[in-house]
Amino acid sequence: MRRLGTGFFIAAGWLILVVFLTAMAGWLPIDDPTRQSLLRMLSAPSASNWLGTDSLGRDILSRTIYGFRVTFAVSLGSVFLALLFGGALGMIAGYFRGWTEKIILAVCNVVLAFPPLVLIIAMVAYPGQALVKVITALSIVFTPSVIRIARANTLSFSEREFVTAARAVGMGDTRLLLRELLPNLLPTLLSYGLLLIAIGALAEAGLSYLGLSVPPPAPTLGAMMAAEQAYVLEAPHAVFFPALALFLTIFSLNVVGEAIQRRINDRERAA
Amino acid sequence: MTKLLVSVENLKTYFALGHGELRAVDDVSFSVRQGETFGIVGESGSGKSILARSLIQLLPTNVALRAGGRVVFDGRDLLALKEKDMRLVRGRDIAMIFQDPLTSLNPVLPIGRQIVQVLRNHTDLSVRAARERAVELLSEVGIPAPRQRVDEYAHRMSGGMRQRVVIAIALACNPRLLIADEPTTALDVTVQAQILDLLRRLQERHAMALILITHNFGVVAEMCDRVGVMYAGRMVEQGDVRTLLAKPKMQYTRALLDSIPREELPRHTRLQVINGQPPDLTKRVQGCPFAPRCPDRLDRCDDVAPELTIVGGDHQFRCWNPVRAEM
Question: Hey, are the CB atoms on B90 and A179 less than 8 Å from each other?
Fold first, then answer.
C-alpha cells in the first residue's frame, strides 16, 4: 500500500483547521462579521484585524470564517442529498432493471441536458429560504452522476455470485439491497462524494460571486470578492485573503479526496 | 422405502430470446427421497445449472421465461408459490451452494455476519445467539479456531475454507434438501475430496437430501445413490448409480463414460471423444437431440423423439437403439 505523504497531512491539517474554525465560529474571539465601522474602512492587516477590513470596515478574518459556514453548508448539504437520493435511485435502477430503470435514466438524462446554471437561477428566483434553495438546486445538479455511478456498480455487483447466493438463502430484495449491495457500493460512492464536496464548495463560491447564493448581509466568500473587487488596487487584502482561503480549501479537498480514492482502489485490488 | 421429498414433474424452463425460445430445461422429471443423494451429470450447457436454479426459482430476472411442470416439495408445488412464500422456503427448507466459493461470499462483510444474517432472516434468534450458532456452524464444517475466524473476511481464506463457509451458510437453518451446483469444480483435487467428505458427513448427520450437480463421474460414483444424465436440456437417462454406470442404456451415457481416461490403458492412448457439438437449444429438434453425434443411430432417431423406456423398475432412458448388455 502506498504511503500518504506529507502533502496529504498538510492538506488534511488545513481542512481540520478550517472545519474547526467554522464550527466554532460563534465562540471564537472574533468580530461580528456584520459589524460595520467607517473608522477602519479598508484598513490593512493589523494586530486587531489580522486580515484587515473591507470597504465597510468589517473584519475580513471573521467574514471569511463565517463565509466558509455557508460554503460548507451548501456543499456538504447538497452532496449528502445527492448521495442519498442518487444512491437510492441508482441502486433501484440497477437492481430492478426494466421499466423502473428506463424511467429513472430518462429523468436523469433530462436533468443532465439542462444547463446547470439556468436550473440554479430558476430555483433561486423561486421564493423561499436562500440556503435551502441553493442546496436543493446543487443537489439536483449532482444527483444524475451519482445515479449513474450507483447504477453501474449495482449492475456489476448484482451479477456476482454472492448476490445469487444470498437470494438462495431466502433474502428479500430490501435486505439484498441494503445488506449485500450497499456495503459494496459505499467506498465508490463516498470517494466520489469527496470530490463532489470540492466541486460543491467551488460552485457555492461561484454562485455567491454572481449573487445567487445567500443574500447579504450574511457573509459569503463569493460576495466578499465581488464587493471588494472595485478597491482591489488600494486594498488587495480584502479580495486576496478570502480567495486564498478558498483556493487552499478546494486544493486540500482535492488532495485528500484523491488520496482516499487511491487507497480504496489499492484495497480493492488487494481483495 | 423412505418417503419422497421432492418430485419434479415435466419441468420446463424456456427463455424467450430475440431469435427464438431457448429450451434450457425441457420436460424433465425425477424425484429425490429423503436423505438420498441424486446426481445430475452432463456436459457444459446441458441445462444442469438452470435445472437446479429452476427448482428454487433462482433464475435470471432480466430475461422473459416460460416455465411449466411442477416441483412438488413436501406436498406443495414450489412453482405455484408466490415469491414471498418462496423466500421462506429458500435457505430454510432448501439451500443451495454454488460452483465458485471465491465469488459466492460477500467481499465486504465478515463471514460471521453473513451466517448471522441468514439465521436472523429465518429464525428469531437474537444477534448474540445467532453469533454463537455461527461459531458452532463454522466448527461443524471443520474451520479451525472458529471463534477467531468468525470476524474474518472471505479474501483472507483459501478456496477450500471459503467453500466450507458457504456450506456453513447453507446449513444454517437445517435444510432438508441441499442443492450443490458443482461444489468442487473450482477447487484442488485434494480439497475436493475433503469437501465431498464433509458434505457426506453433514448429510448423514442432518438426514438431508442432496442434489449434486457435477460433470465428474468419479464424484457421482463416490457420492450418489441415484443419478440422472442431462443432454440438451433433457434428462436422457436416470437410475440407480450402480446399474447406470455398469450398464448404461442410452448411447450418450455410454459415450460419456467411454470418454473418461482410464488408468489401465497404456500411456498416450488417444482419449475417446464424442464428435460434434451439442445442439443449438433455440432450434426445435424433431427426433433425439443426440442423434447427429450418435454412433449407433437408426433412421427414426432423426424424426421421432424416443419415448421413455423403463427397465428393472427404476432405470429410465430415452433411446431408440439402447446399448445392449455386452458381457
Answer: no
